[in-house]
Write a structure and sequence with these properties.
With about 325 residues, the chain is of the alpha/beta class. The longest helix is centred in the C-terminal third of the chain and has 25 residues.
């Protein structure tokens, strides 16, 4: 990839708080919920009714359980929106079929095993790396600006090839949703120096030497050196021969963790901050033909709705961009 010389843009004007408003100005999408037979799944459907960014919810799973949950929550469901199945495997298969038929535009994981659903989704995989990208904001982190974190839930093996995919997927979300033409991407580790006994530092350094298009990538950086300019000043971090360090250190837009364990721990910290009204989050899994949402049962209603809005924005802008370029949006 060729390097670009344009300077990074300032903080994104898009925020987690404005995702639903932004999505409401775009064409509404059809959401399919895989395993929609719990009350919490129907609670999401109830919350979405009347939201302008969703035109329809398709519920795939055990028919009687879906209807029982709907009655308990007094949710009115058209019979055509219930796709009854006899097993989790059939639920996964029917969900994927709805995507292949062009009916479903966003997948929301409900009461179904993630491995079962992910295996079925290999049929609609659009690229080598599928990854979870979390948008978040907190006054405690990065001055409260909107940022992205990856990968807290999908990628378990982070070699050079897979890390490249994580970087590219997160950059795509930054481009399409946060309107960042050249996001600043920090490759996190426990230290900003290459240490032989800490392989993630060497991998980050190697990736930093690559040429990246429409993004600035640098690492290794510890979390504080990625998000806090004061830490950069106090620790006397020298730019040396790395111009990317000057652009990324202390002002990263995207945090790429060295592995799922580190990313998941950081994500759980964000969840705790959210419960204290000190953070807001929204998630999207990219790398398949349509956006895919994997939510924790502990996520609040706002996170669920904001995640769906995030996916609506991503889906529409990706579709529009692909059409302008004469490409299929699944690429």
């Amino acid at each position: 990839m060729k390097k670009t010389s344009a300077p990074p843009a300032g903080p994104s004007k898009v925020s987690v708080a404005t995702l639903q408003e932004t999505a409401s100005r775009l064409p509404p999408k059809t959401v399919v919920i895989a395993g929609a037979d719990r009350k919490e799944d129907l609670a999401v459907v109830k919350s979405l009714q009347g939201r302008p960014f969703v035109k329809r919810c398709l519920l795939v799973g055990d028919g009687p359980s879906i209807r029982d949950a709907a009655r308990a929550l007094e949710v009115s469901l058209p019979a055509a929106d219930i796709v009854a199945t006899a097993s989790p495997e059939e639920t996964a298969l029917r969900t994927v079929e709805l995507v292949e038929q062009g009916v479903a535009e966003i997948i929301l994981k409900g009461n179904i095993s993630t491995p079962i659903l992910n295996r079925a989704m290999l049929k609609i995989r659009a690229r080598e790396t599928m990854s979870l990208v979390t948008m978040f904001q907190s006054p405690c982190i990065g001055g409260g600006r909107p940022m992205l974190l990856t990968d807290a839930g999908v990628t378990t093996v982070c070699n050079a090839s897979r890390m490249t995919g994580l970087i590219q997927n997160a950059a795509e979300v930054a481009h399409l949703v946060l309107d960042m033409p050249r996001p600043r991407i920090a490759l996190l580790s426990a230290n900003e120096k290459v240490i032989k006994s800490l392989p993630s530092t060497g991998l980050a350094a190697d990736l930093s030497k690559e040429s990246w298009e429409d993004m600035v990538v640098y690492g290794p950086l510890s979390l504080d050196l990625a998000i806090d300019p004061e830490s950069v000043r106090l620790k006397g971090l020298s730019a040396g021969d790395a111009p990317a360090m000057r652009e990324v250190a202390g002002q990263a837009d995207v945090l790429v963790c060295p592995g799922l364990d580190a990313a998941n721990i950081l994500y759980k910290v964000l969840m705790s901050l959210t419960k204290c009204n000190l953070a807001s989050t929204a998630g999207i899994t990219v790398g398949v033909k349509v956006p895919y949402i994997i939510l924790s049962r502990a996520d609040g209603e706002a996170t669920k709705l904001d995640s769906i809005a995030l996916c609506c924005i991503y889906a529409e802008r990706r579709k529009t961009g692909a059409a302008q370029a004469g490409l299929s949006p699944s690429r």
